[in-house]
Amino acid sequence: PVCSPSRAALMTGRIPQRQGITSVFFPESFTGMPTSEITVADVLKSKGYATAHVGKWHLGHHHQFLPLQRGFDEYYGIPYSNDMESAVYLKDNQVDSFFVDQHYTTQTNTRKSLNFIDRNSEKPFFLYLAHSMPHVPIYASPAFEGTSKAGLYGDVIQEIDWSVGEILKKLESEEILENTLIIFSSDNGPW
Fold first, then answer.
1. How far is Cα of residue 136 from the mean position of the Cα atoms in its chain?
2. Annotation says 58 is catalytic
3. pTM of the predicted structure, to 2 decimals
4. Which of 25, 46, 48, 172 is the most buried (most CB within 10 A)?
């Protein structure tokens, strides 16, 4: 019930223990999801889909384990959990920013996702959006801070709900909502 094993299962459809993944990867880890594993992005890319991952990866941060080497055409996000040292934004395989204001990660992930949909709405695409929130420490943007009756956690959930709404509105405005499969899930449900 932790991030790396559950994400490996989501990406491959295989039990994480069969991949040798039984705990989380850390910034000091030298390993990641085995490169022999076939991801859903690998399969869809081979069928002509544009593929992107936005948000938390947490399946290894060394070059060979990053999303671009795992079937994704594009990547933008934090390569591991937001509570780990040196949280950075990666764009594809390079550091885009050493400064991550986590109050805005949900907003940033949403904006990057909408941009990907904009650029790929006229062909098949696969977007894997994995918000860092509500992984602790939790943050909401100023637009959502203090707006729920459930404290900061409620604010964070409202902002994620807003994000999903923005994605749905974009799919509808591009007239592809009815032809899009949407799966919403927690990676391991700590709360």
1. 16
2. yes
3. 0.95
4. 25
